[in-house]
Please model this.
Amino acid sequence: MWLLRLAWVLAVVAGSSPAASPPAKASIFADLSAAELRAVRAFLMSRPELGLSPSRGGPLAKNTLFLVELLPPKKEVALRYLDQGGPRPRRQARAVVFFGGQAEPNVTEFAVGPLPRPSFYRPLRFKGGRAVPFTARPMTQLEYELLHRTLAEATEPLYRLLRDSTGFWFHNCSRRCLTFSDIAPRGLAPGERRSWLVLQRFVEGFFLHPVGLEVLVDHRDPDPRRWAVRQLWYNGQYFSSPQELAERYAQGTLAVARLEEPPSRQLFSSYEPRGSFATGTPTEVHGAKVCEPQGRRYRLRGNRLEYGGWSLAFRLRSSAGLQLFDLRFNGERLAYEVSVQEAIAFYGGHTPAAMQTKYMDAGWGMGSVTYELARGIDCPEVATYLDAHHLYDADGPVRFSNAICVFELPTGVPLRRHFDSDFQGGFHFYAGLEGQALVLRTTSTVYNYDYIWDFLLYPNGVMEAKVHATGFIHATFYTPQGRRYGSRVHSHVLGNLHTHLVHYKVDLDIAGTGNSFETMDVRFENISNPWSPGARVVQPWLHRQPRRSEHQAAFPFGKALPRYLLFYNPQRHNRWGHPRSYRIQHSSHAGPVLPRGWQEEKGVSWGRYHLAVTRHHENELSSSSIYAQNDPWQPLVSFEGFIRNNESIEDQDLVAWVTVGFLHVPHAEDIPNTATPGNAVGFFLRPFNFFDEDPSVASRSPVIVRPLDPPAFSRLEIQRWTPASPGPCVAPGPFAYNGTYRQE
Model:
């Protein structure tokens, strides 16, 4: 992924927001500003005992600041401030430092504060007090540059083979260059750093252009002069060195895969149009657009978002992406936090790179690769666009323009409607409420894949978390044996099967922090018919099952998930006597990525469960880490440890951990890109007896039609509370896009 490792990290969500500074309370969750990021970096760089050097250039064996982002306040402290008038939490940063310039290299995380003028730092500890091994660290741009240099030197003996078979080469190239994609995890056991590199033609959509050569490089040593190629795979055969492969080619005993010359236009991996639709309906004119005929119906102030009954604070953290805080409806908190934790894709294949690929995207800076959103494509033209700042593998904050968008979306289906027929050709009334939702969106381009992350807020108290997968498939070189692991999608390209899993944290506070959890499903009873002697009635009844401990509230893949997953406050009831509850509803067809306990599976033990419910603990804030990718065998964060002690979850502060995902067997229609329809998963957070009625009755958007003179129906009474006509949509200016992200 070296071409994409340019420079990232996070801080503020600012930019084109309609108002200047966030309200005081929401701002405790706001990302660090560019100024705060610079202040943290300057403070740490000034500490002689840390011995920090710039990230770019120089040797690999040095101490560098890798990541700076907000360190959110502890929940107890934040709630005391939000709800009880307590003191404002001290603003702090999380800083990740690579100590590579010492005898025993390691990675250490620090809390740095107070902001905006830091004066202290202290180490942060993982649960259990384990240190972070240096080999578990994420890759940096510098390490990619050194890998590139190593690969160029190693493939020099292969110049003739690559030139003759592909028309491209790696060593000393200018226009017809090869590039590479690196595979992770980097080895088979803790302490290793051996990466398989897939060589590809560097053309548009190079992910789909493997040339049949994969190279294993050992780059564990801090001195790149001691890095070495350990093995190669070419067109179905393994070789111990580049020299052996070159000799086989020179001898004429090598089975050579000769690739066709790529066309200069309409390359199969390109977005350029080709072909035509059979109907001839127009596609060269604009399609339907979103508009706001009377202006925006939401309010955005800094990192605080309000829409109808909804209010929340949000941030975009470099390590893992979008994070919502203090999610409320009509002033009542429903969740303290809802956030993306991790996204993984585990593959299978015939080539060594394919069988080794198990991507864990937090290890690639999933939240920091939030490139510019294109108006009218990634989000509607009328959306509000916000910038983000990241300090991730960079020597200062990097601004990502238009990294987040907010917009109201017509769903295209009514939220509610009814036609009340008189069954004689007329009606008693028609009523409907148009469907809309507010969308908070960002994207992560993690190497080949693009994830579109959405949180949707509906007027009836429903929240939806959703992720769409698109971008290029992760492809390897086609061999006949590869058909067992996917589909042939081009002459020399295999689309490898893989399973996507995404993990969310949902820290629910339903009418308070004292919550319980139960499941509900249907069972059938066979009873005597009370109104017809001698007859029987078979009917469903509600089977409720309180889940009193963490083990009882962990639902593994392979077993049926109860259809109602209810979180409720046992002390609070609605008007009709029911405990006030919210329901989690999955929209997913996830499955396990590996057998339980098998090597790399230990690093994603959260991926064993559709849902697991635990008690809130400050040392269990995240289910994954940026280190899991390169050391999944002994993960610093073991989710299984969250539920091992089997604590009581009755009338406690509960956290729901939700896993969603899907199996993707690539097919010809994934060329050039995987499309979003059918490739979206997520979950709903839905009220269940939390309110006394549907809270969307407060909306002034319904339309009611009543006949005044049935059965003639010549006069109608139309009731509405919005203008009679929405008016025209205003056409925006021409499309523009910048796409740069630069250090400020």
About this structure: The first strand starts at residue 8 and ends at 9. Residues 586 and 683 are 4 Å apart (CA to CA). Residues 1-20 have pLDDT under 50 and may be disordered.
